[in-house]
Amino acid sequence: MKMDRRKILTMLGISPALLAGSSAEAAKAGTAAVASNAGPGKITTLNPKGMTLNPKGMPPPSHLSPMAPRQGGLEGKTVYLVDTGFHGGDRYLQQVQGWFNRNMPSVKVEFRRKAGSYPEDDPKLWAEIKEKGHAAIMAIGH
Amino acid sequence: MGIPTAPMVTRAFRELVTLNAAKRGMPRVRTVFTPHPVWGKSAEELRAYVDGPDPVTGKPLMQEAVEALTLPLNEEEKKTGEVTVSVGPATFGPDTADNLQEHYLNNGMTDYLPIILPTEEKVEAMLKGTRHKPDEIVGKMAAGAYPPWQYTVRQVAVNAVMAGARPEYFPTILAIASSGWASIFSSTNSFAFAAVINGPIRDKLEMNYGIGALGPLAQPASPWAPLHVQKGFKAEENVVSLFRGLGIVPGQGARGTGVNENPRYEEQFSDLFSVFTGFFGALVIPDPLIAQSLKERGYDTKEKLAEWLHKNTTQTVKDYKNRNFSYLFEYPRALRGEEPYATWYKLPDDAVIPRWPKADHINIVVAGGQTNAYFQAATMSYGTSISIDKWA
Fold it and tell me: End-to-end alpha-carbon separation of chain A, Å?
């Protein structure tokens, strides 16, 4: 039984390159591409052509969604404040509610904590907001 | 929802929000940023956040929020359609080895260690390690909550070459790749992943499961059924099992681990589990010496030991409620009436409850060199077991 950590590590080291560049590409809204730094005539010691292969996987296309149309000012309308459940999000939104009360008293503010833990969907709440609300602020604590 | 909505996010997540919004198809989403953190702040401090500026734009925060909800959309914000993401050319070069190393490093294709440059010849040799076709889709993988990327046998082979693997490792690598589990995960937590290799392949690949064996694990001769047999495979099959969680805690410092004629296992495991969250299970990793000792005390199966650990490593409701992950993940389930969380949250603070709903949240894997009666434990959940033989 040999102690060879390299073998073990190599088996787990496969995913970073498969997904490489995903962050940078998202930042550029899907326009990025990795440019080759190729330059003809350079010294080649790897193989006759000095070429290597791209390790990246195949990203899915992203489908653009338009934002909901804005309908003018908030006066007299209902704004939902949605706490996603992270620490402090509820206490922070209480202060947002206080701001509306002080500065835009005609706005009706409804506070809700989203059901489930933070990554979970809450279609019941979304339906309520769509039916009774005019706008929403979702706050993420931390 | 179809109505104006503005996310209000702490500044620390600016990059993450921007990336995720773009990947989810709304790159121009009107995010308002607030100072970080909001956790642990007084009402006065939070009010100052709200009355102050957005730390990213410098504009009054609430004015920005109101404008995000009311100003008409511009053309960019109304856009629909599909955006394809380029991953660049199929090959890089020609160039020198040093320049190509730099290219992989500078474009996020390494883990910042030198790589084996994946030439066509090396990748072809790697592909001989499997009967599967180079263009076969192996699976999908996502780094966290992002949309997953697909990959072929050939693309996995390129990565395997870069990592320094040999063709005989390739079936194991493909089996892990087919799980769809990424070894990187986008989170504020430092998640950890573990792979347990069972079957004759552990010796064929000369994997270490003796002295100093941790990280990815392979099980040595153990007094109990190996993990892959517990999960329904035959003993002679080669299998990789994956776990994920928050990391491994060494048992050497646990209470009750002093030299005793009669080992105080209950005290040892209770102390080690004291920082564990019920969100993840427990992966207990005893040296064969400890495993044998436990068997001699009547735990002749792993299931029996897991039952005992479940019943004897308890916590008070007060401690349970004060755990970060209980609040984040189990309190919402309690509010929905899910058991046992709903009951646990109704009990008095001094009531005693188990750390996990069921004993099967505890898995046991034996590893070590039989030199010291040590054990370790990971706050990790079992995910899946995959046949390596199917990828040979």
Answer: 47
Residue-wise pLDDT for B325-340, tens only, equals 898 889 999 988 999 9
Strand order in the sheet with B5-10: A108-113, A78-83, A135-140, B5-10, B32-34
Angle between helix B170-178 and B153-162 (nearest 10)? 120
How far apart are alpha carbons B295 and B302 in whole angstroms?
Answer: 9
Q: Which chain B residues are Cβ-neighbours of A64 within 8 angstroms?
A: 25-27, 79-83
DSSP annotation string for B97-144: HHHHHHHHHHTT-SSSS------HHHHHHHHTT-SS-TTSEEEEE-SS
Burial of B332 (0-12, 13-18, 19+ CB in 10 A): buried
For A52, the closest of B37, B72, B117 (CB atoms) is B117
Supply the pLDDT for residue A3.
40
The ranges assigned to domains in chain B are 8-78, 97-178, 192-314+354-391
Distance from CA of B256 to the nearest CA of A (A): 30
Contact B149 A22 (CB under 8 A): yes
pLDDT given at position A41: 40
Residue A39, pLDDT above cutoff 50 = no
Between residues A20 and B222, the one the model is more confident about? B222
CB contact under 8 A, A57 and B141: yes
Q: Choose the mutation target among A3, A14, A99, A106 for the interface with B, i.e. most B CBs under 10 Å.
A: A14
Name residues of chain B where pLDDT drops below 70: 211-221
CB B85 within 8 A of CB A62: yes
Which pLDDT score, from 0 to 100, does residue A20 have?
61
CB-CB contact of B56 with B35 (8 Å): no
ipTM of the complex: 0.77
Residue B251: partners with Cβ closer than 8 Å, 6 or more residues away: B257, B268, B272, B374, B375, B376, B377
Q: Is the pTM of this model over 0.80?
A: no
Residue carrying structure tokens 């080669």: B238
Counting every residue written for chain B, the total comes to 392
In this structure, are residues A55 and B158 in contact, taking their beta carbons and an 8 Å threshold? yes
- For the segment B29-46, what is each residue's pLDDT rounded down to a tens digit? 999 999 999 988 999 999
State whether B169 and A57 contact (CB < 8 Å).
no
CB neighbours of residue B68 within 10 Å: 21
